[in-house]
Design a protein that fits this description.
41% of the residues lie in helices and 15% in strands. It is of the alpha/beta class. The strands form three sheets. It has a seven-stranded mixed beta sheet with strand order 2-8-7-6-5-3-4, with helices on both faces. A three-stranded antiparallel beta sheet has the order 9-12-11, with helices on one face. It has a two-stranded parallel sheet with strand order 1-10. The longest helix has 37 residues. The mean pLDDT is 97. The structure holds pyridoxal-5'-phosphate (PLP).
Length: 377
């Protein structure tokens, strides 16, 4: 079996497992607002899907995305999820011999996109107390080279949950501006942050901002996101987009309905996931050696360090999998630091987190006894 088939079969099994508790992919399992369901049902019932959506996205959705981030003057290009925007922007801005600079850990797919067009990748380690689990702009400056074309900043960082301060963003923007590179500011998790600062406000021309509906609105399976950038940049990106026949009409209807109910619906979702973080923090504090290095997290997920317990993250993941609970091994994000931690997503029902927490001592014992090599993705 080829690698992609093994990976796909793994996810196919997960998606087809009834009652799986999804604590591994930062998806949002909060009950959807009735208006969002109604938009989806109406689109299906009226068979609106026979036509293509507008190539750059519904005008109302494009305006709603720009307004949600307060980036007036910028333009949005709707895509099949944030990942499609990242793919498109990496292909547009990078070529053979160029370099993409990002953190370690980061979100890996843009590195794969960069490499696929012949660009190199340079990572600045940020994992560990010595770095405060965050990117010191001075270390970014050291990593810049004459051929650095793109800085890819996941902020809030997935998996760490740290977010850049206003001063850090200002410095990062200055470094990017000086070098003539572009900043891809991946703000997929912005809505969960305690405080968040948009680089595009300081540097609207060289910043490309990435937006997702998968996390805050919980539409991961519908595939809708966007890139927000200077209108000239969007003009360039709109010249050869992967989805020139429009992104899913049904997903866009759901996203527009979501933006309309956001202020009423999202605060409770946010409070719930923060409450879930607190439950896990309390449970971790009761187990000597188990550490939650970033708390509170600015994402809808947290990191648990299990290396001091002598545990392999993969073993802990496999132990929970026996209980139909999916958490993520650190190696998914980083080969360098991946043996130190697991990631747990918390925008999920309280009962799932309670189950996770109640099982924690037993799962640690179970993982200690597990030496079998499990294939994880
Ligand atoms: C940092 C980051 N960017 C982008 C994505 C992809 O988002 P979407 O589902 O909108 O494609 C993810 C998904 O986990 C992510 O973690």
């Amino acid at each position: 079996m080829r690698a992609f088939e093994a990976r796909n079969a793994h996810f196919d099994t997960l998606v087809n497992t009834p009652d799986l508790r999804w604590l591994g992919q930062n998806t949002n399992h909060a009950k959807a607002h009735p208006a969002v369901i109604e938009a989806i049902v109406r689109c299906a019932r009226d068979e609106e899907f026979h036509v293509y959506a507008p190539p750059a996205g519904f005008e109302a959705l494009r305006a709603g995305i720009v307004a949600d981030f307060g980036l007036e003057g910028q333009a949005a290009l709707v895509s099949d999820g944030a990942i499609a925007s990242l793919y498109h922007v990496c292909h547009a801005l990078l070529g053979p011999g160029d370099e993409l600079v990002t953190t370690d850990p980061t979100w890996n797919w843009p590195m794969a996109f960069a490499r696929s067009v012949g660009a190199g990748v340079r990572q600045v380690p940020i994992y560990g107390p010595e770095y405060g689990y965050r990117l010191d702009p001075a270390r970014l400056a050291d990593a810049m080279r004459p051929n650095t074309k793109v800085v890819y900043l996941v902020d809030p960082n997935n998996p760490l949950g740290t977010a850049c301060t206003a001063d850090e963003i200002a410095e990062i923007v200055e470094i990017v501006r000086r070098s003539g590179a572009y900043l891809i500011h991946d703000c997929t998790y912005r809505h969960f942050a305690h405080e968040h600062h948009l680089a595009a406000k300081l540097e609207p021309e060289r910043t490309v901002t990435i937006y997702s509906f998968s996390k805050w609105l919980g539409l991961a399976g519908l595939r809708v996101g966007a890139v927000i950038a200077h209108p000239d940049m969007v003009e360039r990106l709109a010249g050869a987009p992967p989805n020139n026949l429009g992104s899913s009409l049904l997903a866009q209807r759901a996203a527009m309905a979501g933006l309309a109910i956001k202020d009423e619906w999202f605060p409770a979702v946010l409070a719930d996931q923060r409450g879930n973080q607190a439950l896990i923090k309390a449970a971790a504090d009761r187990i000597p050696g188990l550490v939650m290095p970033v708390y509170p997290s600015n994402g809808n997920f947290i990191v648990l360090e299990c290396d001091a317990l002598g545990l392999r993250p993969e073993a802990l993941v496999a132990a929970y999998a026996e209980h139909r609970i999916m958490i993520r091994q650190g190696a998914y994000h980083t080969p360098t630091f991946g043996d130190r931690f697991v990631k747990v997503s918390v925008s999920v029902p309280r009962a799932w987190v309670e189950e996770f927490v109640d099982l924690l001592p037993a799962m640690i014992e179970r993982a200690r006894g597990m030496n079998a090599d499990v294939k994880l993705f």
